[in-house]
Each structure stands twice: as C-alpha cells, then as structure tokens.
Fold this sequence. Notes:
The chain has 18 helices and 32 strands. By secondary structure, it is α+β, with helices and mostly antiparallel strands. Among the domains are: 2-146, P-loop containing nucleotide triphosphate hydrolases (Rossmann fold, 3-Layer(aba) Sandwich), CATH 3.40.50.300; 245-352, Elongation Factor Tu (Ef-tu), domain 3, CATH 2.40.30; 473-590, Orthogonal Bundle (Arc Repressor Mutant, subunit A).
Amino acid sequence: MRALTGIDTDRLEEEKRRGISIDLGFAHLGSIGFVDVPGHERFVKNMLAGASGIDAVLFVIAADESIKPQTREHFEICRLLGIRRGIIALTKCDLVDQDILDLVRLEVEEFVAGSFLESAPVIPVSATTMQGLDQLRAALDRTAGEIAGKDASRHPRLPIDRSFSMRGHGAVVTGTLVSGSLAVEDEVELYPAGIRARIRGVQVHGSPVERARAGERTAVNLAGIDASEARRGMTIAPPGLFHATRMVDCAFELLAGAHPLKHRAPVHFHTGTAEVEAQARLLSSLEPMRPDTRAHVRFILREPLLLLPGDRFIVRMFSPVVTIGGGVVVDMAAPARMRRAQIDQRLGRLENGDRVSILVNESKFGMSAAEIVARTGILAVEIGEPEGLVRLAGDWLVSRAWIDGTVAKIREILKDFHRSHPLQPGMAKEELRSRELSGAPGFLLDALLARAKDIAAEGENVRLASHRVTLKEDEESAAEKIEAQFREGGLAVPSTTEVLAKCGVEAARARSLLQILLKNRKLIRVGDDLIYHVSAVEGLRKSLQGRKGERFSVADFKDWTGVSRKYAIPLLEFLDRERVTRRDGDGRVVL
C-alpha cells in the first residue's frame, strides 16, 4: 500500500515490528479509497470489519507462496459478501523466476475460474522494485470507472470501524459510508446504543467537506458524546429511524468445506464492522444443514445490531474459529408464535414478493410508514399505495380486505348492541374500540368509521345510520312523566333518583329514557345529580338579561330565584360555564 499510494497503512508499533497487518489501515489514491485488511489467518475478524461496504477487491497473492488457506478463506468471504469486481495482484514477483510466476498465475486462474474474479486482471507487482505498479494503478482506474457508485439517496448508514479522540475536537469515528450522505450539523444516532449526537465536522480522505456521500471513506467529528461511547461495530444513522434487533432471519449458504451445521449451534456472526456471538436456529428441518447448501436460518444474537433486509453477513464457527458460510438478511421481526415451517415459507415469500404488502397484511392493525421504513430501509416516498393496500390518516397502511372485514364486524357489534339496548342512541366509541380494536392506534377507529357510509359517529357514540330510537307505549308514557316532573319542579327540582323511580318502568329503561331526554335537550344536566327542564334554564337566562353588568352575591341570587343554597351554587357554576355570569372575587357579574 505504501508503494502504491505513498501512505503507510500500518499504524501500530507491533505491525511495524512484525511486518504484518494486524488491524485495519486506510489509504487513498485519487478518488479511490483503500481499506487495507490483515491477511493473516489469526486476524480474519479484523479483515471482516474492513471488508464490509467495499465495491471491489484488490486480491493480493504472494508469488513466492501462491494460494494459502487464508487466501481461500478471504476469497469465500468476498464472494459471500456479494463483491462482484476485483483485481488480482501477484506480489513479491521479484523473489521468483519467470517459470514460477507463470505457474502461480495458472494456479490463480484455476482457483478463481467460475467466480466473480474469473475475468479479473492478474498483475505481477513488486513493492521493492516498483515493477507492475503503473499497470496496477491503470487497472484500478479502469475498474473504478466501471463500478456503479453506492446510492447516496438512501438513508445514511455508517458502520464505525475506528473511534478515537482528537485534542480540540473530541470524538471522531471513521467508516465507509455504505448508503446515503452525512453533512455537518446533522443529528445522528449511534445504533444499537441509542446514543444521539450532532455532526460537528466531516472529512473524506483527510480533507474537510460539508457532506460525505455513499461509498466514501468518511471521518465524522461528533459533538455531544465522549469518544469512549463510540466503538467498532456501532452504526451511525438518522435518529429514531431504525430498530436494533437480536433476531435475524436469513438466507444462509454453508460452504462446501464446512462441517454440517447443527440446530442451536453457537457461532460468530459478522456484519458491517460488528461481531457478536449468536445461535443458529434451523428452520426447514432440524437435521444438520449439509455443506454446500443454501437454506433459511434464524440467528439469535447475544447483542442487538442494526440490520436491514439485503444486508450481508459472514458466519464463523465458535471453535475452531473458521469461516463456515454467510448470506443475506431477509427479515428482522417475524410475527410471534409462528412454527418453523411457517417461518421458512414466509421468508421465501419475502424474498420473491412485495415486501411492503406482506408486512402490512400480516400486521394485526396495519403499519405506519415510519414502521415500514424501519423494517425495510426503503424511503417513505417509495412506499406509495401498493395494490390491495389503503392509506388511512395519511401514513397508515392497511389492506382493503382488513378494512372490509373489520367494518363488517363493527356492523354486527352495533346490530347486537341496538338489539340489546334499543333506547340508547348508540354504543360508546371507547367500548367499541376496546372490543374490536384493542391495542390499535386511537385514530384508526375514526378513520374506519369515516369510510363506512352506513355507520354514524355522533360525539362519543357510534350507531348504524339506520338506527332510530322508537319508544314503546309504556316508554312514551314514562318519558312524559319524567319530563313533567322536572318541568313542574322549576328551579327547585326533585332528586333524579326519585323521578326515575316514579316514572312507571324499571330502572334500566328509566335511565335510558332520561338519556334520550338529555340528548334531545328537553332536559339539561347542571350537576352530577341535578337536572333541570330546559324551560327552567331558559327562564333563568331571560331573568338575568335585564341585569347585564350587575354585580351580585350568592345571597342576591337566592333572593332573585327563591332557591336554597343547595340549588344556587350548582346553578351559578353552570351559568359560569355557559358564560352567562362570571366569578369576580367573592361575587359574580352578569355578562
């Protein structure tokens, strides 16, 4: 790397003493960024932290050693990570003669046959004599020009591969921006820790910029956190946008050279720059998974990670620690209480079907656009209104079938209610919500009722539009008696309990009749157990009209109306609420 770019990527004293890469190193050549990863078999975990997010591989094979076990492991890792382009550099070519170099080239070409590196340039180089470096630079330029850049329009995600503190700046983290863009003053969150911060500064290849874009090696200066709070394996993304998870359903490929994978086998799970311990749960069968096969597997992670569908990962054995496979994340939050076979079939549908429709249809009450973004990583503007789905209240998606089914159930509930409570104008909205939409967002019932032409919502009651309160002969007589008793009481009304007891029907129907009279404004509730006939209240209003602006006391009011304090205080409080009077110190003023 030093010979190629002029930058020494070995930062550690032990790396310089031993002459090998141990941790990640970083360099650039023009617009091309390099992540120099260790080649030694003992440091593959560090290699994995650097290999995520790269667009092409510069695959280094020493001419004096040819293909080694770690060469094969690194090659399989690159393939499993979905890398599609690369260049092969045969290094140390000054240490072998031409015959050996030709033999190594043949071995390499045979090794990569049928793979993504089959047509890659194979360039002999020497960092000592500088042989082949110009050809290698030219090949790098050609390859870089042929690679489509990462999508800067997506949600930004920066897996952290290094964190440190700089004097005068504070916390700095670095990584390869795998999607989206990050700009100065952006608010961000460190997943999965949930730590929020503000971007104070951004650098790309060591130079300050206002905005870093997908594919660029990026350093971010974070305000509001300590450097010790950020570590390799975390991911920077917009605050509150995603959810970290401990359960990952995947399409997994077990390498041909691996041992069969047993159900509940402990493994190391590598994705992005993170490594966590995990347990493999086989789905299609509890029989050990055979090498060189592909299947759906669930991984239960010991620590949460930020993962999205389409993310790639590598799995290594727990002991000995060698790479055994890898694959692609399909989903991170399957519905609870599904059988293994059902999960397996569901993952197949997610891989081949409309993910948004599947997620919305299997959700009990639909999903918000924000939740869909968190589960899929797509942009909110891309969600639209897929076939068979409907948007309610702006950003809430449900299926048409769910709407039809739920409205039909509400109709049946209301029919039963009207049949059992013919004197009530409708069912309380909260009661309906608790019976049919318990746990759903509060707005969902109102949105559904607004779409049902044959259901009427009036205040806090819901009824079938066709429902009318029809009184029987004895009920009409009882209602007249109730109204008459309150009318005759004037401002000194009798007890509501006494009135209902004398009306001639049982208590439940009497209370329903009272509610009908209140709803029709023939009676007016002034206090908890104080109800007046509308004529008495209107008469009181008229009597006060001639006293507009006059200040009075409770005693004055008692003299004007002839009522006792028992009735005077609730009446005055009612008049205050109705803005007929206003409390003014110890007295009141007629408005």
